[in-house]
Design brief:
Layout: E1 2-3, H1 10-14, E2 30-31, E3 34-35, H2 47-60, E4 65-66, E5 71-77, E6 80-85, E7 88-92, E8 95-97, E9 104-105, E10 119-122, E11 136-140, H3 144-155, E12 160-163, E13 173-174, E14 177-178, H4 179-185, H5 199-204, H6 221-226, E15 230-232, E16 235-239, E17 242-245, H7 249-273, H8 277-280, E18 298-300, E19 306-311, E20 315-316, E21 335-336, E22 339-340, E23 345-347, H9 364-382
Parallel strand pairs: 1-4, 8-23, 10-19, 11-12, 11-19, 12-15
Antiparallel strand pairs: 2-3, 5-6, 6-7, 9-20, 13-14, 16-17, 17-18, 21-22
Length: 387
């Protein structure tokens, strides 16, 4: 049985902005025995198309979904788990936590010091520029969400200041192929969690600066700066109604550029070793991220220049309903590749769960196959029912 608090693909229906498209090309949208079969394999799905894709898969496999069923508690019982929902009680041997990593906006504590005159919205609540007041906008965070929202809001005529911290820079295309084709073909995305040197850091990395557009546009900080977006450093504090920014912007640029160059070197090495150079074209290199001539270290939040703030600072999972002692001091699950630190409890859809591709749609199949093999072995000794 699959329990869903709303409808199938609920998060895609309720927690995405209007213009959002998948970062992955359509040909990479696949689930077990089910894949994209439209006319634009190199395009990027809109949110209605994503909803249709996931709903279509659920129907095709006749998934036993119990929709509009909110789980309020999962707790251990003598023979497994007791699950409390607003539609009744359930008992089962195993539970798979597939609620994902993006349940609650991860807004930093500095939010509490923002003047009440500033309208604040998280990336989970943002829908379009029209919901923001006229005037300047501070976008905090420069991962995929941050750069996309900064671009869209700037195009709406509202001047945007983008606060940049650690980020992952990638070109949309490299050597005539989508950069995510390279991630898959070269094996980078299939790297297992137990092969990653610093797993905690890998799981905490921001999403790469990518956007899915029909033109396959690269949206990096150079492009945003050229479009008129003002770049400042990481938001460090708010004091006396002034936003204070880190002075390490050049270092952040240099580090992101260096990491991108190393990844491109990995792609080039793979192409050379597999005799693919003639097929994909010659190696490319990209202009370094150019720092602004002037980057203020503070902004007055009461002077009228900034009227709203969009927090593109990521999300985190919500386990308030999980009454099993399996969370660490930061509120994250203790697990080994999705096998949670409690008998018969599993997780899917978390960053670098078993592979680097774990949080992408096409990454679910391999992870699920591994975990279901473990689950089947557990049930062979413990019982036969699961949720």
């Amino acid at each position: 049985m699959v329990l869903e608090r709303g409808e199938v693909a609920e998060s895609w229906r309720r927690q995405r902005w209007d213009s959002l498209r998948l970062l992955t090309p359509n040909w990479q949208s696949r689930l077990p025995g089910y894949c994209y079969n439209g006319r634009d394999p190199d395009g990027f799905m809109t949110m209605p198309e994503v909803i249709g894709f996931i709903s279509g898969f659920a129907a095709a496999v006749a998934a036993p979904v119990r929709s509009h069923t909110t789980v309020s508690s999962v707790r251990q019982a003598d023979d497994g788990y007791h699950v409390t929902t607003d539609n009744g009680e359930l008992r089962c041997r195993c539970v798979v936590l597939a609620s994902g990593a993006c349940n609650v906006a991860n807004v930093p504590g500095v939010r509490q010091a923002i003047p009440s005159s500033i309208e604040c919205v998280s990336s989970l609540d943002y829908r379009n520029p029209g919901q923001l007041p006229e005037g300047g906008v501070l976008v905090v965070g420069a991962s995929a969400s941050g750069v996309q929202l900064a671009d869209e809001i700037q195009r709406s005529g509202r001047p945007v200041t983008l606060s940049v911290g650690e980020h992952v820079r990638l070109p949309r295309t490299y050597r005539r192929r989508d950069v995510l084709w390279w991630m898959e073909a070269s094996g980078v995305w299939n790297q297992r969690y137990d092969e990653v040197d610093d797993l905690a850091r890998a799981r905490g990395l921001p999403s790469p600066q990518l956007i899915g557009t029909p033109e396959r546009t690269t949206l990096d900080l150079n492009a945003l700066r050229a479009a008129g977006v003002a770049l400042v450093g990481r938001l460090a504090a708010v004091r006396d109604d002034r936003a204070l920014f880190s002075g390490g912007l050049r270092n952040q640029f240099a580090l992101a550029d260096l990491k991108m160059e190393r990844l491109l070197d990995t792609f080039d090495e793979w192409a050379r070793d597999h005799a693919r150079d003639a097929e994909v074209g010659p190696p490319e290199r990209f202009e370094p991220t150019q720092p602004p001539v002037l980057s203020p270290l503070s902004l007055d939040l009461t002077g009228g220049r900034i009227r709203s703030i969009v927090w593109a600072t990521g999300s985190r999972p919500d386990y308030s309903w999980l009454d099993v002692p399996v969370l660490d001091r930061k509120g994250f699950l203790r697990h080994e590749g999705g096998v949670v630190d409690a008998p018969g409890l599993y997780a899917l859809g978390l960053p670098v769960l078993r592979r680097r591709k774990s949080t992408f749609i096409h990454g679910a199949e391999d992870d699920a196959r591994d975990l279901m093999e473990h689950l089947a072995g557990y049930l062979a000794h413990a019982g036969t029912s699961a949720v």
